[in-house]
Design goal:
The chain is α/β, with parallel strands linked by helices. The chain is built from 6 helices and 9 strands, in the order E-H-E-H-E-H-E-H-E-H-E-E-H-E-E. The longest helix has 24 residues. The chain binds glycinamide ribonucleotide (GAR).
């Protein structure tokens, strides 16, 4: 199977990037990280990329206030330069524009630390606790021009416990993020994902189940 080339956009610590690198290393992900791009010069994710000899690029957004399309044009240029097949947003804390979405239609994935469409946006682990939901989790979705609105590929759920803080819930969710992001990328690499409207059809996906989950 041909390895797909991934471009990873990051802003911070890059634990999701690390999980992808590790899963490529252990053979469970048939892909190559072609480039890591950050809008933050000091993102630890860039360090992680360099450690693995992956091109690590900082593209500052400083001169692009109010010019999001232009900034995204630079991202597209860099991603194309590295022959990227699939773009993944791994903790990339910028709103992206049609310039990027149109350059990679149904070829951009985002990981979000909540069960979309509940709790889009930021600080969502706290929002889940404050709302009193009994389950939260994470979602990998294709990116469209809305915020956290694109077609859902895969979700994992975790219980919200009575003594959870924002940090303990975030940590429980993050563990699952590290699993499902790679799984979504592998499904893409195997050509198993088809987007029909806002539904993602997964070849070999589940059609029946006798599982029930409840909490408490
Ligand atoms: C992850 O929890 C990811 O789901 C979240 O940022 C964190 C990045 O962690 N992304 C968003 O909230 C996007 N709106 P990481 O840098 O360790 O991968």
């Amino acid at each position: 199977m041909k390895k797909i080339k991934i471009g990873v956009l990051v802003s911070g610590r890059g634990s999701n990037l690390q999980a992808v690198i590790d899963n490529i290393g252990n053979g469970s992900l048939t892909a190559e990280v072609a480039v890591v791009i950050s809008d933050q010069a000091d993102a630890y994710a860039l360090e992680r990329a360099r450690t693995h000899n992956i091109p690590a690029v900082h593209i500052s957004a400083r001169d692009y206030k109010g010019k999001r399309e232009e900034y995204d044009g630079l991202l597209v240029q860099e991603l194309r330069k590295h022959g990227v097949d699939l773009v993944i947003l791994a903790g990339f804390m910028r709103i992206i524009t049609g310039t990027l979405v149109k350059a990679f239609p149904n070829r951009i994935m985002n990981i979000h630390p909540a069960l979309l469409p509940s709790f889009p946006g930021l600080h969502v682990q706290k929002a889940a606790i404050d709302h009193g939901v009994k389950f939260s989790g994470c979602t990998v979705h294709f990116v469209d021009e809305g915020m956290d609105t694109g077609p859902i590929i895969i979700q994992a759920i975790v219980p919200v416990l009575d003594n959870d803080t924002e940090d303990t819930l975030a940590a429980r969710i993050l563990k699952q993020e590290h699993r499902i992001f790679s799984r979504a990328i592998q499904l893409f690499a195997e050509g198993k994902l088809t987007v029909e409207g806002r539904i993602v059809k997964v070849a070999g996906g589940r059609t029946e189940s006798d599982d029930h989950l409840f909490n408490p």
